[in-house]
Structures are given as C-alpha cells and as structure tokens.
Fold each of these.
Amino acid sequence: TYVVTENCIRCKYMDCVEVCPVDCFYVGENMLVIHPDECIDCGVCEPECPAEAIVPDSDDKAAEWSELNRQYAQEWPNITRKGEAPADAKEWDGKPGKKALFDP
Ligand code: SF4
Ligand code: F3S
C-alpha cells in the first residue's frame, strides 16, 4: 500500500485524488491520507504529488505515517475531486517539523 507522509501537511495539492483508480484518499484539515485496505498498490499517485509526499509503505519515510493513514482514513471524509491548494502551499513544501502541525 502507499502512504501519505509529512510533506503533505499544508501543501495539500490534491493532484493525487484525481488519478487514484479506487478513490481511496481521505481529507483532513491540512493533509490527506490513504486507506491502506482500499489502496490497490498501483503506484499511479506517487509521481503526481508535487510535494513528493506519497511513498510505498516499504519506504523509511512511511514508518511513522502508516498507522495515521489507517486511523484517519476511517475518520475523515473521502475526497475524489481536486480542490484549491492552500495559497502558501509552495512556502510549506519541504519545511521541517511539519508533523507538529498535523491537525486531525
Ligand atoms: Fe490510489 Fe494507486 Fe495511489 Fe493506492 S497507489 S492510493 S490505489 S493511486
Ligand atoms: Fe498531499 Fe501530494 Fe496529494 S501534497 S494532497 S499527497 S498531491
């Protein structure tokens, strides 16, 4: 399965939702997550993310995010259409310490 990680926070470009064939993205206040039981592991979303926030669960970066994706995919609403990214998305791209801003 694929996992949305820290750099999605406050970037939230949403290009990912447009390409997912099974619509398994869920949306929170400032980031998205993937439902691990619905993701078919196609990998199509990974190169679409301008923030490079999506990784396979085998990636080191996924470790601390796998459980959060599972948990919040069950609490947040499904999202299938790209909305407007935050106006300052670019400024947040790559900023360290964004995990502290995770906002469920
Ligand atoms: Fe959707 Fe494929 Fe990405 Fe999984 S890997 S979230 S199925 S686009
Ligand atoms: Fe987040 Fe990238 Fe999707 S920033 S909303 S995972 S396109």
Amino acid sequence: MAHGLQIRDEQSGYNKNLFCIPKHYEEDLERVFIPHGLILDRTERLARDIMQDMGSHDIVALCVLKGGYKFFADLLDHIKALNQNGDKSVPITVDFVRIKSYCNDSPTGKISFVGEELSTLNGKNVLVVEDIIETGRTMKALLSKIKDKKPRMVKVVSLLVKRTCQSPGYRPDYIGFEIPDKFVVGYALDYNEYFRDLNHICILKENAKEKYRMS
Ligand code: HPA
Ligand code: MG
C-alpha cells in the first residue's frame, strides 16, 4: 500500500514570517504548512516511483484541473528528466479534465466534469494527477469514466491525502503527503479561486474564510 510523507495532527507547520508570502495574503494565513521546496523534493521521488511502475509503455498524464496544475507541471518536469537521462524512455502525452466539487471549504455534493472526452486514453498507461483526495468520491467518479475508455493501466497520484473520519477508504497509488483534516491552500489549491498564486501550502485563518466566502 502507498504511503505518503506523514504530517501528524499535532504538527502545525512553520512561522509564516520566515518565508516569502505575497503581501495580499499576509493577513489571511495562519502558518506555512508545507514549504514549496519540500513539495518539489517529494515530487521528484514520486516521479521516480511512478516511472518504475509505468515507464514501460506509452503514458498519458491526465491533469485534474484546476487544483492539480502546479503539481502536474512539476511532476512532469521530473518525469521528463528521468525520460531523457535513463536507458529507457517512453512517449508521454497530456490531457486535462476539469472537476469542481467544492464551494467555500465544503464539498457541494455534486461533481461537475467539464470539457473531457478522454478518447486519448484507450490502450495507454494512464496517470491521473490530482491535488488532494479527501473522501475519494470525486476520484471514484472520474475513474469509472476513465475505465470506460479501456486504458491499458490506470494509476492515481495525489499530492495530498487528508485523514478524515468520513473517508470511505479510497487510497491513490502514490501519495505525496498525508495531512490532518484542516483546510489548506496554496500551490494551486484554492479557496473560492483565491490562493492558487501562493507557492507554499498554508493553513487558512478562520477570518479569511469569511473574507473570501461565496454566498
Ligand atoms: N483545500 C483546497 N481544496 C480542497 C481541500 C482543501 O483543503 N479539500 C478539498 N478540496
Ligand atoms: Mg479546489
């Protein structure tokens, strides 16, 4: 079974004043939870593990938008580096699916897919790249759509997995970090579209949830 880097419930991260934070978000963030550099280091190792398992056949990397775009871009940079420096290499193509299931800091209960056709997945090794898995509900819905296209293999990598009591136990094949049940933003993870332009993964202050709340 896959294990990510464990961030325990009592770990609160780092003093934000020791890092560079965009001025417009300074008042909104509690702590730096996962610094950008650590995200990149863990991503480099995930790339190696993924290529060991999937690198013997053409790969389609499927980015789950919008939250997955930073992780996707950095992960693919590492995968490309392996692909040009190793003894073996395989063609990698990319595809995108956009999913929205959150409003404010809660799931809306409906999952909307936008703009996917996914016919490129037939017969390929498909790597689904996701930012965060909480209940696994969204991922299960997406996987059933993908399997209809008869891929050769499907693996899921998620940068973050939240430890929640409501989790029905879905676990991706590769996990970057396992985190406590707190709402996090940054590195393309958003709160109502804000905070994607923040490099580090941070914990949001309660008053920031009010400030950026959608009615
Ligand atoms: N942050 C941002 N988006 C999310 C989260 C989170 O903690 N959980 C599910 N989607
Ligand atoms: Mg989101």
